[in-house]
Amino acid sequence: MTQLTPYHEDQELDNNTSTNVHFRDILEQHINRRSLITKTASGAVALTLASTLTGCNDNDNKSNNNNGGTNPPIDPNKKPEKLNFTTVPKNLNDIVTVPEGYEAHVLYALGDSINPTYAEWDDNNIPSGPSFQFRSGDCHDGMSYFGLNTATGRYDEQQSNDGLLVLNHEYINPTFLHPKGPSKVDGRRPEDEVIREVNAHGVSIIHVKKDTKTQKVELVKNSVYNRRITGSTLMEFAGPAAGNALLATKFSPSGVQTRGTHNNCGNGYTPWGTYLTTEENFIGYFQRSGTDKYQRTATEEIALKRYGLGLSIDYQYEKNPDGTPKKNEKGEIIYILDAQKNKIPNLDEQGRIQYLNTNSRYGWETAQGQVESQDLYDRWNADVKAANAGQDYRNAPNTFGWMVEIDPFDSRQAPVKRTALGRFAHEDCRTSRVIEGQNLAFYMGDDSRGEYIYKFVSDAKWDPKDINGGYRAGDKYMNSGKFYVAKFNADGTGQWLELSYGKNGLTESNPVYPFKSQADVVTFARLAADSVGATKMDRPEWCAVNPVNGEVYVTLTNNSNRGSSYPTDAANPRNYEDLYNNQKVQKGNVNGHIIRFREAEDKTTAESFKWDIYLFGAEAAMASNINLSGLTDSNDFSSPDGMWFDPRGVLWIQTDDGAYTDVTNCMMLAALPGQLNDGSKATTSNGTETIVGAKVNDENLRRFLTGPKECEITGVTMTPDYKAIFINVQHPGEDAKSYAAPTSNWPATQTDPNNTTARPRSATVVITRKDGGVIVG
Ligand code: FEO
Ligand code: CA
Ligand code: CA
């Protein structure tokens, strides 16, 4: 059955069953140390319309900046010495709370129109699926502000009054997206619902204007720059996998194009003024039939399984009179066992083992094309159906999971999937400090339990003349370079292991996967990383680069299986128990941490680095060998996810939590971190030795904001004058069982705290100071 209940992100994929060598090393060290404690909806129409309206893109390479190209310009001289805003207390209120003297306004919520011909949002009159091509998508996530030079129509990194705000719509909350929640009719999703869902994914590009006196920010609704990129928009491939047989589909038999981007989570931006969007939990959008097992080679099955689309054996079970499976007291299916107590597979008529169908998250493949072509729905079924891959969608899953470049200022060219940066559950992408004449590095996390941290280093050295170079600059810096994965050693050193075909055993005789080319390596980056011995991390989410010293920070949000299926190690050192609501026992790395590293000799091309753990999430009251950073009530937090250094060097940390939400809603904190190795060695409650940064205090880590009920706080960007900061509130009220019984009424509650009926909607919020001053200035 298609899952029509709300999707929660912590239903993360857990597909890393590799036993790479380094992993075993760490395990042995750990054991030795002994544990102390136990149609009109397709992208084509929007593109046509937008390019008709937008006549000012001339791709000129003129630079408007004098800072070498960053977004916005780096200026560590403006870094505050200490934080002095009023701390926002932990709370469970259904509203965005900001410090005294600040104000928060909802700027752009689910369904808001970006075109004057489309009506304003009305909770009781949900607009058609196709209209969502001109409306805000759902589940706002990563976001960047790009200054707009209204005279040239191009990027101006110093412009604070006009800008393009570009943001991701990661996934959907179908309960509130449709008039009465999601439905199925005779086993099929209604087409209008599917079109609405596909359009509610992707990216928004919206023109925002800031009043120079009041600092009030508004959406410019009639701007020619406003546009949506959706799950159907035409996309190009570039880099080593472009044109490879692995990307061949019926839509593009030569493997050079695909349609759509989805599960766009964290983000990035380039120094030449383009946006990077990620494709995170993409695999769940595809359906696969059990019988497809017999159509695939063993090699194909290895790759499908490692990315979460493997098939499970259909075992015999005891049945109730109505044919449903009988279950024990724990709710587990009671399987029939043979004399050796093994489960017995069901066999087909030819005596072959039968496999279960996999379900797609939203059932898009079940829609019947009446408004749209049937092909738009068929593409979500990954079965082998035809004589070759150019005639079906067996390779459709390979066309997602990439880093996608979007030029917000250029609506004429299609976004580009940059395959050189690998295919995995891309969470975020942060560019290294931009230094003329040096190679650019792009740091990235793969957010699943036990997955890896990667970097891509451009062959080309940075040239500020490339600012405003659009996709041509992208071709220069993101198509050829070296791709690496991180290995963290227990002594605080680390290595970047190169993922290049022909090196480090990445050849056809590799025991993990027979790599035949760099296209194989990038498309199956996880398998390449397994085979070189990368370190399995606690769900790598966002990456941030400190503009002061180039150090790289990565949030590791949590891992309930750390200490069980993933033994603790120095870089992922905690396994402890915590109670939720004084009842439910939570285990593993419950509250997450933030690791940081510094490249050898501060070079982006370095193949080694040093690391420590900047910050451990915890409850203030936890024992000091769990609350290793010394958090107090003014800054304790759990599950760090979104994270960004603003150009002054203020670090913004956001949470997507389910472990401390019995006490407080998700939040954003401001931080003024020190530097690598400003702390000391430490031993965690479970006896694992690690290296922790200096303990924090109230002047260098403070809670700046809390969100409404059942939300995640994510996405953070500022205008270059630091007078407006934008954040996203994702999935408020996500636990509601029915559209008729909302558990949050935000954003209506932001202006009407007594509202108890409005639909909860994800939204972008802009925060300014009442006196028009600089944020945390
Ligand atoms: Fe979409 Fe890993 O957060
Ligand atoms: Ca707790
Ligand atoms: Ca995230």
UniProtKB/TrEMBL annotation:
Region entry Disordered: which residue ranges?
A: 54-80, 736-760
Q: Give the compositionally biased regions (Low complexity).
A: 55-72
Return the protein name.
Phosphatase
Comp. bias (Polar residues): 741-759
